[in-house]
Design brief:
single chain; alpha+beta; Double Stranded RNA Binding Domain; 4-stranded mixed beta sheet; rod-shaped
């Protein structure tokens, strides 16, 4: 999983960069092999005016799924990062579970189709030999 951190209208310190990466590795750890890339953009919407204007936007790229965008705004940047990371974890877990369920359904459908095909061939063989259901020779 590759994590790219960018900042707009605020300074991206090494400590902030490390915090974002550590937080995402913790939050997305169980989905590590499915999440290929995370792009994080941290920004200060209003600049020096203050208020609830620190934004953390995350773009997750998950194998077999479209891109997922998570965004959170808070007055404290670290709180916005934590909330966005938590939501990213929940969203990735749900998407991956859907993929697994879909794959399982497809596998079951293929197995059922193959079994029905085998049963049909066996029934045709029995009928050709005069051993069909209800036929006694």
């Amino acid at each position: 999983m590759k994590i790219q951190v960018n900042a707009r209208r605020l300074t991206l310190t090494k400590a902030l960069n490390r915090y974002v990466k550590r937080r995402l590795k913790f939050a997305l750890g169980s989905q590590f092999e499915h999440v290929t890339r995370v792009d994080v953009t941290l920004s200060d919407i209003n600049g020096p005016k203050g208020g609830e204007d620190k934004r953390c936007q995350m773009l997750l790229k998950i194998k077999g799924q479209g891109d997922v965008v998570i965004e959170d705004t808070h007055s404290h940047l670290y709180a916005a990062i934590d909330r966005a990371a938590g939501r990213a974890s929940q969203t990735a877990t749900k998407r991956i579970a859907r993929l697994r369920h879909k794959a399982k359904r497809i596998k079951t459908a293929v197995q059922d189709y193959q079994q029905n095909k085998r049963d049909r061939y066996l029934a045709e063989d029995f009928e050709e030999q005069g051993m069909g259901m209800g036929v006694m020779t």
